[in-house]
């Protein structure tokens, strides 16, 4: 299992680990709380038995997720971002999938090969921006880019929200990577979510189970 797995239960976002065959190997407490709502997203099967699969209300997003999970074997992109609508009036979940670098070249079919972060825009983790600036020396613009990057949106969306060019948004994001000491969006999300532990909101009932 991925070496960070013990710490994922404390994250204020949903975390799921997937095997190469698309089955779910791990679900953190926050993700379990979201899945229990059965609001556009559910788990079919049992995680412990290796039969669990994530189902989404939107067939198009479900197919895209399946393709993204298989992309590692086809040598395609190692990341994927999307939105998953709910059946209620809540804001769509934001999904951010990354293939784990540690899984490259491994033959173990039971090993986790991809990680999915599930963000609930209606209860986002609260990233302590003053801490980011104090710890890493990020500018105000870099802080905004970092937070948007964590929220599982594309670089084009980041540029539009900040009213800057895509190249400027990319430059800011690369500067953030360099300052905080990560090399990818996956590393940045893991860092920022870790900093939000104990600060971000939890789904109903999640705190009692933590």
Low-confidence stretches: 198-210
What class, by secondary structure content? alpha+beta
Please count the beta strands (DSSP E, at least 2 residues each). Answer: 7
Whole-Å distance between the termini?
Answer: 21 Å
Looking at the structure, what is the overall shape? globular
Mean pLDDT across residues? 83
Task: Provide the spatial order of strands within the biggest beta sheet.
Answer: 2-1-7-6-5
Order of helices and strands: HEEHEEHEEEHHHHHH
Radius of gyration: 17 Å
- Biggest β-sheet strands, sense, barrel: 5 strands, antiparallel
3D structure, described in words:
The protein has about 210 residues and is α+β, with helices and mostly antiparallel strands. Helices cover about 40% and strands about 20% of the residues. The chain contains nine helices and seven strands; from the N terminus they run αββαββαβββαααααα. The strands form two sheets. It has a five-stranded antiparallel beta sheet. The chain has a two-stranded antiparallel sheet with strand order 3-4. The two termini are about 20 Å apart. About 30% of the residues are buried. Residues about 200-210 have low confidence and may be disordered.
